[in-house]
Fold this sequence. Notes:
Layout: E1 3-5, H1 21-31, E2 36-44, E3 47-54, H2 57-68, E4 75-82, E5 90-94, H3 101-109, H4 115-121, E6 137-141
Parallel strand pairs: 3-4
Antiparallel strand pairs: 1-4, 2-3, 5-6
Helix pairs in contact: 3-4
Amino acid sequence: MGLLSFAKNIGKKLFGNEEEAPEKLKKHIEDDNPGISNLEIEVQDGVATIKGETEDPSALDKVILMAGNAMGIEEVRADEVVAPPETVTVEYYEVQKGDSLWKIAQNAYGDGNRHPDIFEANKEIIQNPDLIFPGQMLRIPQD
């Protein structure tokens, strides 16, 4: 995953202006670090560019989603992150109004009882499974 678009005016408010965005995004990601080291972030005109290294391809996905789900970010570029190739098929889902993890699992897997699988795949992105918001992007690993 090199580039993913997000809703710029939706998300977790982490920073007040673009000058403080790199530092605030870096802290946000490192607080619940999914497994990235040597993290560097630049933000310009709503585009976050991520650099770093990870040994886990899912960590790259999570870092991109953590940055992109922040208010004020509309695009994330991660072409300069060193990561192994993804070993599972992953789809990305934009949360809609009225969604719950159960409903998303029902649509993605045909079984709402698999909602813990979605939470586990996004635990750095979603701290509380009851607090997802429209416009938020989630990763949905496929079987």
